[in-house]
Amino acid sequence: MTLILTFASPSGIVQVGDRLVSASVGKNFFPLDEFSTKQIVYRASDAVVTIGYAGQALLGGVPTDEVIAAQLSGDPTLGNRRGRGRGAISMGGMINRWSITHAVRHLRRKLASQLSVGQELQLCIAGFKRDAGSFRPMLEDIILKPDGKSEIRHTPREWPSTYFAISAIGFDCRRVVAAVSERIKAQPPAFDQLPAFLTEQIRQFNAPGIGKDTSAITIPRFGIIESEFFPMSRRHSVLQISDSGSQIAFGVEYHPWVIGWTTLKRPTAGAGHDVEIHDTSGFSVRLKGTGNELPNGLLSAFSSVPRFNQSTTLDPDL
Fold first, then answer.
1. Both ends of the chain: CA-CA distance in Å?
2. 20 to 30 A Cα–Cα from 48, which one of 72, 106, 154, 183?
3. Helix, strand, coil shares of the chain as percentages rounded to 5?
4. Residue 37, helix vs strand vs coil
């Protein structure tokens, strides 16, 4: 069980998801990882999106977010570690540089092929797509099934300036969308307050298998994309510098996969030890609260973050 909420408007996108991965046996839920991440930030050739998922926490024994990252990046080393470690940031040397339309079709085909009978995987893809020289918001909910069939819900092509849409995948979607939409209409939060607002909505539903800790991705129409957690709870990771083979240890907040960017920028004084990722097109991602300073000149890096306890006999289910 999980719940991922997405707010989309011409001003920006905010996607918030709980971080608990659990296994279900009958009506009982057993936590496997309370600080997982169920989102991927992806830079396509014509779009910047966040991709949230619900349903299957593992595909072929590999965390679902890593499978998605492998398919989007074209990195053959991803998706094969089976829990022995994982990259947190993928930059430089991408094999794939697809349009968002091609990337979504590729994901639908590849992910559905890894589902077994009775399994289902839900995706919410939201962000901004370049269209006729400007960027317009996009929001798609996709339900994948092992027979290759999929259900797709998407918003209209044209968005009035005052229009907003709410998406929910995972728990009781229709009821959640209706309730959250009414709360926003009754008392609209400021855009920069939406990550905290959606976190509180997730906590209020309080269903079995939905965690209290959340991960939030904010994609403004103009400005820096941000990844943050509620609350901020540190984890330790190892950053591997691929060109030298050396390793440095630094505090990391277990941020979602970031696919398609080209360089890391060290934290600046007074920035709260945030790390920024840039590409040549001017898009930037800020990983908030990532801890210690990074060295200059990183062009390609991966961090190894422990995931599921492989000794468990339960099948992880979001």
1. 4
2. 183
3. 15, 40, 45
4. coil
**63-103 confidence digits (pLDDT tens):** 888 888 888 887 666 655 444 444 444 445 555 778 999 99
Q: Is 225 helix (H, G, I), strand (E, B) or coil?
A: strand
Q: Residue 184: beta bridge partners?
A: none
Helix, coil or strand: residue 243: coil
86: phi then psi, degrees, rounded to nearest 5: -155, 155
Are 171 and 210 spatial neighbours (Cβ–Cβ below 8 Å)? yes
pLDDT tens digits for range 48-63: 999 999 988 888 878 8
3 state SS of 101: helix
| Cβ-based burial of 36 (10 A; exposed 0-12, middle 13-18, buried ≥19) | buried
Distance separating alpha carbons of residues 179 and 200, to the nearest angstrom: 13
Report the alpha-carbon distance of residue 50 to residue 42 in Å, rounded.
6
- Count CA atoms within 13 Å of residue 290 on its CB side: 28
Please compute Rg for the chain using Cα positions: 18
What is the value of pTM for the model shown? 0.83
Weakest-pLDDT range from 103-117, 226-240, 260-274: 260-274
Give the H/E segment covering residue 41.
strand 39-43
**Nearest-angstrom CA–CA distance, 146 and 299:** 38
| Closest C-alpha to 13, from 40, 50, 41 | 50
Type of residue found at 181: S
Task: Report the candidate in 133, 129, 195, 184 with the shortest Cα–Cα distance to residue 162.
Answer: 184
**Distance from C-alpha of 19 to C-alpha of 37, rounded to nearest angstrom:** 6
Tokens found for residue 267:
């934290």
Token pair, residue 293, equals 């300073």
CA torsion angle for 74, 277, 228, 289 (degrees, to 10)? 130
